[in-house]
Design goal:
Elements (H helix, E strand, L loop, with lengths): L1 E5 L11 H9 L5 E2 L18 H16 L4 E6 L1 H12 L6 E5 L8 H4 L5 H7 L5 H12 L7 H13 L4 H13 L9 E6 L7 H11 L2 E5 L6 H4 L1 H13 L2
Parallel strand pairs: 1-2, 1-3, 3-4, 4-5, 5-6
C-alpha cells in the first residue's frame, strides 16, 4: 500500500516536516509521494488554478504513470483534502481509500469554512514583508500545541528562502477553496478533524463525513494542522482505518 499526501492552503511538501519520517516509520514498506500543488514548492513556476478540478488535472498529468502500479491511498489536509475528494470523484478507481483532514465544502456556510477571526490574520500575513512574522502568524493560526515552536518557525522561514509563497498563489487558492463543491464518490473514506480548529469549524468535517457515509474522528485539543499538533494520533487513526477490509 502506497500513499499520496497533499498539503493545504499556501503550504507545500516541505511543510510536512517530521510528519513524513513518522509516516514512513508507520508504513516502512510503502512509497510515500508528497507532490506540490501548482504554484507551490517544486511547482512554483506553474500557474495556480482557481478551481479544485484544475488542481486534480495537474496532479493526474504528473502522477498518472506512477499511480498505475500498486495500491494507493490519498491523504489530504485542508485544501489538500478538497483535492483528494475531487480526485476520488473524477477517478474512482485510482485510490483504494481516502483520508481527509479538516476539510470543508459547500455543505457548510462560509463562516464555518473560514473562521471570520482568521481572515484578517491571513491578510496581515501577506501584507507584511517580514517573513518570520508571517510564518509565526501562520503557525499560531494552524497550531494549538506548537504555536510558539521557534525551531519550527525557523524551518518555515528557511523554506520560504528557497520557495516563497506569492500573494497571487494565496488568492487563487482561496478562490479554488471557496468554489469547491463536494460530490459523492465510492472510495472508502476517513475524515479526521480538530475540535479546537481555529480556521475551519469541525462542523465542516461532520457534514462531509455524514454526506459521504465516512468514518469520523475528532481530536479534542489539536489545531487545524493535525500533522503538527497530533501526528501520532493521526497515524494511529489512519493505520486503524487501513487495517479494516
Amino acid at each position: 500500500m502506497n500513499f499520496v499526501l497533499l498539503r493545504g492552503l499556501i503550504r507545500h511538501s516541505r511543510h510536512w516536516g517530521d510528519f513524513i519520517s513518522s509516516f514512513q516509520q508507520a508504513f516502512p514498506r510503502s512509497t510515500i509521494l508528497t507532490p506540490d500543488l501548482p504554484g507551490l514548492g517544486q511547482e512554483k513556476n506553474a500557474r495556480t488554478p482557481v478551481t479544485i478540478e484544475e488542481n486534480v488535472e495537474f496532479l493526474k498529468d504528473s502522477l498518472s504513470s506512477t499511480l498505475d502500479y500498486g495500491e494507493w491511498v490519498v491523504v489530504g489536509l485542508s485544501l489538500g483534502g478538497m483535492v483528494a475528494a475531487k480526485w476520488c470523484e473524477i477517478e474512482p478507481d485510482v485510490f483504494s481509500k481516502a483520508v481527509l483532514m479538516n476539510p470543508s465544502s459547500n455543505l457548510s456556510p462560509f463562516w464555518h469554512r473560514l473562521n471570520p477571526k482568521a481572515l484578517p490574520i491571513f491578510i496581515r500575513c501577506f501584507l507584511t514583508q517580514d517573513v518570520a512574522l508571517r510564518e509565526k502568524r501562520i503557525l499560531a493560526l494552524t497550531s494549538n500545541c506548537n504555536s510558539g515552536n521557534e525551531e519550527l518557525i525557523k524551518s518555515w522561514v528557511n523554506i520560504a528562502a528557497i520557495d516563497d509563497i506569492t500573494r497571487s498563489t494565496f488568492l487563487r487558492q482561496m478562490a479554488a477553496a471557496r468554489a469547491f463543491r463536494i460530490k459523492q464518490f465510492k472510495t472508502p473514506c476517513l475524515v479526521l478533524s480538530s475540535d479546537n480548529d481555529g480556521i475551519v469549524s469541525p462542523q465542516c468535517s461532520r457534514k462531509i463525513a455524514n454526506f459521504l457515509g465516512a468514518e469520523l474522528y475528532s481530536h479534542p485539543q489539536a489545531g487545524h494542522d493535525l500533522a503538527i499538533d497530533a501526528p501520532q494520533w493521526t497515524l494511529d487513526k489512519i493505520s486503524d482505518f487501513l487495517a479494516k477490509p
